[in-house]
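Components:
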Amino acid sequence: MNRDLALLIGILVSLFAALLLWIFYATLVGDPVARLGPLALEQLPASGVSHPVTAVLLNYRAYDTLLELAVLLVALLGIWSLGPAPSGFRPAGPALTVLANWILPLAILTSGYLLWVGGHAPGGAFQAGALLGSAGVLLRLAGHERAGLPAEAAQRWLVVAGVAVFLMVGLLLAAFGEGFLTYPKAVAKWLILLIETAATLAIGATLAAAYVGGRPPGIRSPCPSSESPSSGNPSSGHARS
Amino acid sequence: MNAAFLYGSAGILLFALGLWSFLVHEPLLRKLIGFNIMGSGVFHLFIAVAHNGDGAAPDPVPHALVLTGIVVAVSATALALALNSRLEAAAAKASDAEAGSRGAPERAPSSAHHLRWPSQ
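Structure:
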């Protein structure tokens, strides 16, 4: 890129940042405006959980969270539509294998803990799912070609589980309850836990599958691609063994 | 308020740095890194805005937005990286074909695999 143009862009971006800083400062020192925070804390007893962030995510703004899960799913579908996954890395050394063996069960256990604790303390589906996804990344780095995920058919069920359970609960509530994703107070906690469990599995599977970087290995594509993912690549031999 | 302003200003600074990097650098990978830094700046700002003074409970709404935003940003980055690697593979293939049609025998028959990210 042209040097002068880069300088001009730098100056314009600096001016923009100064404007943003001024707006931010004016907002902080200005009169306090009505915010959603106090309302969220006030309604907490009716939400079914006692941690405000979880209440915001799964109750007040459940629509938003549902759509975010859909975004995750669409991103993964985009990755899968690009073709088969590149082959894995070379086999892990003994140290990494042992490390993975130690960390994986702990990560899965911690993920379950985070899921449960989300009801009353920092935690919840997104943290738990991110941890599960990172366990998958570790497995893939340690040489597992599918990042610990099951075969393709089961993988498809896993990645849609979050959106599917969320939508089903919402539609059932719309049909027999008070409205779409308006939980009855008595069962709100259990509905939220059900949705969060499915969302955790879906987020973990989606992130791990996204890291794999293509359609799950070992799947025949309907139109055979001219370029096989592993042909001629010396690092792919181990993966079949 | 002071801590919130400093933290939020750092977020705005990160956002501006990321925006500059995104606009100035040509390679897609660099653009993607700049884009992620922009996102981190926005997350910083949201966390700073949620601060309600020492000891008071923070505003949960921005926290929830950041929480989902991080996971969505990670998945969008994965999609962009996958697109980038396919683009590079396609570009390598095209330059191979071009070299082949010009009859350059010294060129390796399939260099696409060597240029492919991340199997490299």
